[in-house]
């Protein structure tokens, strides 16, 4: 880009182009979503198996989410370091999911993992997914958000051990499938030369 | 009576940098360089001018043993950018 004379039209065009370029930045490998999704999926299946009496554990399987939380935080920190740009959208999404997990953890600590509380978690997941879809304009998340609301509403009439199967289904829809979509998009984007996240060429 | 366009912003590369930074929280130097297609030397000079005007904050640190520069627009920068766009719109309205 050289320092040629700017007309008013040129200035506005340049502003529009640069804003469009900056908003198009995307860096999300989908790894954290995959880690969470798989853990919630297996915890739900274990909870179902325990409730059905197929197996016994000395603790509630959902406690397995605690060590996974630290693993996920480590992955998140590593990914944040690789980002060349921090967008307002990323920040908003992070706050939404942080708020979601805090609410779920606090509710689980006080109310326990009862069938009613699982219904509440399903509604919270639906809400977080829908909002994420609206902010990122990711249609998949919007549709899944609505679908999860239907599943959550259905779970009111399914207050038995099968509610854990609904939770496993939601884990697949909200975390596991999007993580593969994000991964595919991430790999495709990183194949484009010059789009890697290395900070080589730094001169300042 | 029209206001004069801010001379700090009325330069192609500086305006491009400010337009990029207005839409994000912060951006690395390499990202700005890639999007503006500017040379590292020229971009460094223009970024320095924006910093001196108080329009952006520049943070230099090490990331994975490499020097890394991050730029972020300031409140003063946002105000100047908004005024610049408003003035541009006034000019365009008169031309119509």
Automatic annotation (TrEMBL), chain A:
**Sorted UniProt keywords:** Membrane, Transmembrane, Transmembrane helix
Q: Which residues cross the membrane?
A: 25-48, 54-75, 95-113, 140-157, 163-186
What is the name attached to this protein's record?
A: Uncharacterized protein
Automatic annotation (TrEMBL), chain B:
- The Winged helix DNA-binding domain extends over 13-92
Q: What is the residue range of the signal peptide feature?
A: none
Q: Which Pfam families does the UniProt record give?
A: HTH_34
Q: Which InterPro entries does the entry mention?
A: WH-like_DNA-bd_sf, WH_DNA-bd_dom, WH_DNA-bd_sf
Q: What's the name of the protein?
A: Transcriptional regulator
Which organism does this sequence originate in?
Ilyomonas limi
């Amino acid at each position: 880009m050289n320092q040629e004379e700017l007309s008013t039209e040129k200035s506005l065009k340049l502003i529009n182009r640069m804003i469009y370029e900056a908003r198009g930045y995307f860096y999300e490998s989908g790894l954290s979503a995959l880690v969470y999704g798989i853990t919630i999926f297996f915890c739900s299946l274990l909870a179902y198996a325990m409730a059905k009496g197929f197996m016994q554990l000395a603790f509630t399987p959902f406690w397995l989410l605690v060590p996974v939380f630290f693993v996920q935080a480590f992955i998140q920190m590593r990914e944040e370091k690789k980002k060349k740009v921090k967008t307002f959208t990323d920040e908003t999404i992070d706050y939404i999911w942080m708020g979601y997990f805090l609410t779920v953890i606090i509710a689980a600590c006080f109310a326990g993992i009862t069938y009613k509380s699982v219904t509440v978690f399903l509604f919270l997941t639906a809400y977080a997914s829908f909002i994420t879809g609206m902010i990122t304009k990711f249609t998949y998340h919007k549709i899944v958000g609505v679908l999860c609301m239907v599943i959550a509403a259905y779970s009111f009439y399914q207050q038995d051990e099968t509610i854990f199967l609904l939770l496993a289904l939601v884990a697949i829809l909200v975390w596991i499938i999007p993580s593969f979509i994000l991964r595919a998009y991430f790999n495709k984007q990183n194949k484009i030369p010059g789009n890697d996240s290395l900070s080589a060429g730094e001169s300042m | 009576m029209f206001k004069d366009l801010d001379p700090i912003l009325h330069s192609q590369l500086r305006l491009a940098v400010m337009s990029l930074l207005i839409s994000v929280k912060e951006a690395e130097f390499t990202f700005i360089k890639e999007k503006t297609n500017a040379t590292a030397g020229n971009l460094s000079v223009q970024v320095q001018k924006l910093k001196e005007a108080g329009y952006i904050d520049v943070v230099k640190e090490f990331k994975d043993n490499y020097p890394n520069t991050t730029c972020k627009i300031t409140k003063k920068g946002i105000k100047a950018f908004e005024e610049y766009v408003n003035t541009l719109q006034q000019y365009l309205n008169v031309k119509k």
